[in-house]
Input
Amino acid sequence: MKAFWKVLRRYVTPYKGYLGGSVLLNILSAVFNIFSFAVIIPMLRILFQMDDKVYELIPISWKAMSFKEIGDAFTNNAYWQVQNWMQTLGPVKTLIILCAFLGVMTLLKTACYFGSSAVMIPIRTGVLRDIRMQLYNKLLGLNLGFFSQERKGDIIARMSGDVGEVENSIMSVLDMLIKNPILIIIYFAVLLFISWELTLFTIVVVPVLGWIMGVIGRQLKKKSLAAQELWSDTMSQVEETLGGLRVIKAFVAERKMSARFAGITDGLRSKTAKVSTRQALAHPVSEFLGTILIGIVLCFGGSLILSDNAPIDAPTFIFYMVILYSIINPLKDFSKASYSIPKGMASMERIDRILNAPNPIKDPAAPASFDDFEKDIVFDHVDFCYEEGKPILRDINLKVEKGRTVAIVGESGAGKSTLVDLIPRFYDVTGGSIRIDGKDLRELRMTDLRARMGYVNQEPILFNDTIFNNIAFGVENATMEQVVEAAKIANAHDFIMEKEEGYMTNIGDRGMKLSGGQRQRISIARAILKNPPILILDEATASLDTESERLVQEALDRLMSSRTTIAIAHRLSTIKNSDEIIVMHEGRIVERGKHEDLIALGGYYKKLNDMQSL
Output
């Protein structure tokens, strides 16, 4: 439970004003409830004509009397008033007055009860929003290395299923955790006031019953954690299936994928069934134990009443049992929470794995100024590895001067994409340094660095939004005129205007309503609108047909003019005119120079060129 209270302190503290209101309303609800139940005693005495005592009014002195004396005087005066009504109005009218008092107290009690629950709604909804925002912002801030080790489906499951479980299992009991301790404390004080002997006996019995509930509930968290892991597997396969439907259908693998999914869902069903079975035990077990408690107290209390020197009479004992039963309901709720909270804490553990994930890519405490790119980008003996002992880049030395175009070529796995990913600090070097205008990238604020870079990769990343918003992505307050101009430069304006809604056309998930060439030109228009001094191209024409490649290459040529460009090239024909071509092999730079010089050298580059000429 220590971890549970820590979670509550972390997320509920900003809403302490609502908590105060809930506490006040719950106290009033309990007090009104006691007053409504207290009417039972005189009502029973009137109905069964049990009270022959003559009461006299006792003045109450808040300073001179003890708490018990005040309580006794208050009770005496209440009976004195009822006795007066009996003498002046008669038993029937007195009973009607008491019933009306019972109705008013119940109305006030239920109004406060509703108010206390309504006040908790902003807390529950606010906490869930805060958790989702924390998760989302953490995901935005984490480095790319984290996502290479985590499955997207698992992350989605934590954002949806685990956050939903926190809502169902933790936030749903928050109201109860405030209300029930108040009710238990106030009702317990009343029980002590009525009969300390009975209450002492009850205190001895209750912990034994509570221990039984705890033994059953402790196993729930482990099973819930396993169930949530299987839920993540389910979401991961759904995400993989949606992303690979073309391949699944092309290879007639529907039955294979269905069988794989059935295995995961069967495992999830088995774990969930065990969790649900244990959770379903909460109500019947608590109901049974509560009945046992009532039965034990009835036997003990009945023996007291039937004794010669009975400490309480029958109507008072009935009032005592009503209050005791009112305590049992909150205790039952606690037993349900002992099942529910571990389930939610299992989900919170999975959420915290993301929230507490370390992020090695951080801004420096005192970042150096970087107003504009003026000189060059220098790789100085750069090494890099994703895993210790498995180098990806080795001793890279490269200088990219402002306004020049440098192309990077090599076979798959040579380290080309990794090399360019180091420039915007998607990853940090593990050896050597990268400097821009003489300043180490790690000395700069990431937003300053990345604001001066444009990125166009092989698979254009577009969003389920309008064409206008996709082009204007990352540029504050972009106008339609600016977006249209960028689209024209990117050879995108004509096909955009053929759409029924033009620039306001929604392009669907990942831009699937557009062809590959159209998506790439939208991506280029986005980079043009940003107007960055440094441009990174990652095989931007590799997957296009001849006509689309021509249009995209024209757009790229316009984009690259007067900019510093670092381009990864698959088709060597697109980079023949580069100022320098870097040839990579197994993480090293093995050749560099212009196209003609590298052909004449007869090495790696000529082999690549000859292979593409076949």
